[in-house]
Design a protein that fits this description.
single chain, about 5% strand, 14 helices, disordered C terminus, about 60% helix
Length: about 300
Amino acid sequence: MTAAEAAATAVLALLAAGGLSETAHARANIEKPIPLVAAPTAASDLARTAHDPLEDFNRGSYAFSMGLDRAVFRPVTHGYMAATPTPVRHRVSAFVYNLGEPGTFVNDVLQGKPKRAGKSSARFAINSTVGVLGLFDVAASMGIRSHDADFGQTFGRYGIKPGPYLYVPVLGPLNVRDGVGRVFDFFADPIGLAGQGWTSPFGVTRLAAQTIDTRANADLAFRALDQAIDPYATARSAYGQHREALVREATGAVQDLPDFDEVASSGAPAATPSEIPTVSAEPASTDAAPSAPTPSAPQ
């Protein structure tokens, strides 16, 4: 393989590793849904969700990448979706996801989470055998649900800040921490190493399948961006909030919603929507109206 071919393969690998979309691993059977962070409600809110000192460059990069998507990736993806029955696409997604389980296991170990590491390894063993090389998620039917972990999340787990936001041409949204993490994800991938590298026939086939599957799974998100008032700011906000939620999950800094079934059975009054805690990726606005003073006890 020539140097040019190797470089092209590396670009494809990074793209497949998560450039086009951060939703490639979003699945209905995820172990525990990550609590949603508050959605931006105005342009000023969108602007505060990321440190974006290179916004002019990033917007140009975003426009270029979306143009490339419309010219290349979208037609290929829509052709794949039209020609492939939904059950077959689900099997492809399951196969691609299963190949990522060893990488999830590595990060579970690095994050000091042995129980989750055990689930990752069990899922890979079960689905690779009983599930016919990962085509069927047998582990989920046994109650062993999937979860995601990557090096960007692991770095955040140990306090490394995200750094400036970047929209890298073709590769998509990143911050400095997650960009370095993606490089680690690429070169430390156990399946890639065991399969004689990403430039082997197996590696190239896997990358192509992962790229198309990722884009197909993100198609609704891309359609939503097309309808946004400011697609760039919307994409930046969604990426930042998603990554922040993953790091909060890794550090245990999320606050779960109450179990309404347990509340009802205990006879306690149910929480009203205003009483339900939310997790926000931003500091509270200083423009909020001051709360009423709490009466002090008589002296």
